[in-house]
Amino acid sequence: MQFITFLGFTTFVAIVAYLATRNTNEESSDGYFLGGRSLTAGVIAGSLLLTNLSTEQIIGLNGQAFTEGILVMAWETLAAIAMVVTAVFLLPRYLKGGLTTIPQFLGNRYDKSTKTVASALFLSGYVVVLLPIVLYSGAVAFSAMFDLPELTGMTRIQTIWGAVWAIGIIGSIYAIFGGLKAVAISDSVNAIGLLIGGIMIPIFGLSYIGDGSVAAGFSELFTSNPERFNSIGDSAASVPFATIFTGMMLVQVFYWGTNQAIIQRALAAKNLAEGQKGLLLASFIKILGPLILVIPGMIAFHIFGNTLDKPDEAYPRLVAEVLPASLVGFFAAVLFGAILSSFNSALNSSVTLFGVDIYKEYFNKEATEKQVVKAGKMFGIVLAILAMFIAPLIDNAPDGLFGYLQEVNGCYSIPILTIIVVGYLTKKVPAIAAKIALASGVIFYSISQFILKPNLAESALEKAKAAGITGDQLDVVQAEAYPHFLHVMAILFVLNVIIMLIIGKIKPRTEDYQLTYTNQVDISPWKYVKQVGILVCVIVIMIYIYFSPLFMG
Predict the structure, then answer these.
(1) DSSP symbols for 356-397
(2) Is residue 495 included in any domain, yes or no?
(3) pLDDT for the residue 82
(4) Which residue in 267, 251, 257, 252 sits closest to 356, CA to CA?
(5) Which residues, 6 or more positions from 227, have their beta carbon under 8 angstroms from its beta carbon?
(6) How confident is the model over 447-489, as pLDDT tens digits?
(7) Does pLDDT of 321 surpass 90?
(8) How far apart, in Å, do the first and last CA atoms of the chain sit?
(9) pLDDT digits (tens, 9 = 90+) for 374-409
(10) Is the dihedral of CA 184, 187, 188, 189 positive or negative?
């Protein structure tokens, strides 16, 4: 019965996506890569949210909440402010320039080689990090949810290989042969299911704690562990409070405003007003993200205490404990949709980056739009197969690989954000400044996080042990031995901006850069964009005040 429910919902999503996209002209770049620039607010919001959600995030962030409590909500609530920044500042400029890819702007603003380097950095992040990890984490969760080793009689690693290829093939069909519109439509349907299924878990969990009463369950959860409802993280926390004002917001703006896999949905808006409404609608829903990605982890801590071997077991164990058996199939389908969305969205963006920024630029300058789309599809097939071969190998990697690879992403996120922001806010900074900023950002961050940090942390740990320090205090010593990586990102962002401005002063462009309106879509802003944006920011601030010692004592 569980498998039939799962299969039924998954098939329903596929049929809806097919019917919605069968009349889209996908032989043109706009038709294939941007869904014909036809996406409306609801579709954009749904696709943005589901592209963001993946098994790694659903399980991983709840795992962090299991360990640390509500303070990890920063990754969710602050995303809403980043979406406001994107809607008000970045999206109007993107649509005015008629962009298909973010590196395309860098080519217009600086030069062709800057665009190529940025595209290569994005692609390397997708190929080496994002695609294989989404496939692997999804396969592990799916294998455990249906207990595939027991069901099939295969070993655990064999079921992971099978699940990886099943997810990869289905995701590739959506992304490569359906284009962005198929991805966005399926995302929107799955987003509804994910919201319903995701909210069911805390409701059933609180009801479980409260003996049938959700209100009693929440009261019990709060009174039993009030310290875990503190939104202010100390220096040893994964998100120290101070990082909210430094690198955290930079990471959020990079992710929601410049990451091709995310912003491509807004670039496909039928006009600026729809794009802004889509982003702001998504920001409101994102504020509710902790209900799905934080509260279940805290409920799991209340139920299981410290009995779990790993924090990442918290969410799947909670689902198995509190969800009625009749709903497991539906929830598995929803989770499968989240896995699929993250994979096919990154793959579609990779296809777009290759076809528009690399193939047409270096392989066939005279290529027709049909040829560009075809080349992108062929590249996507190769990329998907490569990711499917790499993903199961992650099972042999040491513990903590996911966290390590997430930190690696900082090598390119801040440099790219720097040159985009400076590119839009200045007119005279030349291409050489962007190239130096990209190189210095990657090099300095790599030295900081992978050479200096490990050595200084290890030295501090040895001194602390020699001084007789033990237990949790060792974690504090290690955390304070070197600045948090989010602080490092902020420092490097400021440093890169200064470098670019100095170069712009010494060796400015011969001609001032002017952003030209391409008339691709109407760029009249939504008349309430600023008022709604301010409201979103105020709500986020009020949430932090409410869950702080200032309010809660």
Answers:
(1) IIIIIIII-TT--HHHHHHHHHHHHHHHHHHHHHHGGGGGGS
(2) no
(3) 96
(4) 267
(5) 69
(6) 998 899 888 888 877 887 777 777 667 667 777 778 888 999 9
(7) no
(8) 49
(9) 787 788 888 888 889 988 887 775 444 455 566 777
(10) positive
Residue with tokens 């699929």: 340
Domain membership flag for residue 304: yes
Q: Where are the beta strands (DSSP E) in 227-343?
A: none
Task: State the residue range of the domain holding 333.
Answer: 30-404+518-552
Calculate the average pLDDT of the chain.
83
Per the document, the length of the chain is 553
**Residue for token digits 């400044």?**
433
501 assigned to some structural domain: no
- So what's the pLDDT on residue 180? 47
pLDDT at 383: 84
Cβ within 8 Å of residue 97, ≥6 positions away? 104, 105, 108, 515, 516, 517, 518
Contact 417, 118 (CB under 8 A): no
Within-domain flag for 129: yes
Count structural domains, the chain.
Answer: 1
240 is written with which tokens?
A: 């120290």
- pTM tops 0.85: no
Residue 176, phi-psi category: left (phi > 0), alpha (psi -120 to 50), beta (remainder):
alpha
Look at residue 400 in the predicted model and tell me its pLDDT.
Answer: 44
Distance CA 347, CA 454 (A): 33
- The single residue listed with the structure tokens 């019917």 is 19
We report the CATH number of the domain holding residue 142 as: 1.20.1730.10
The conformation of residue 71, written as its DSSP 8-state character, comes to G
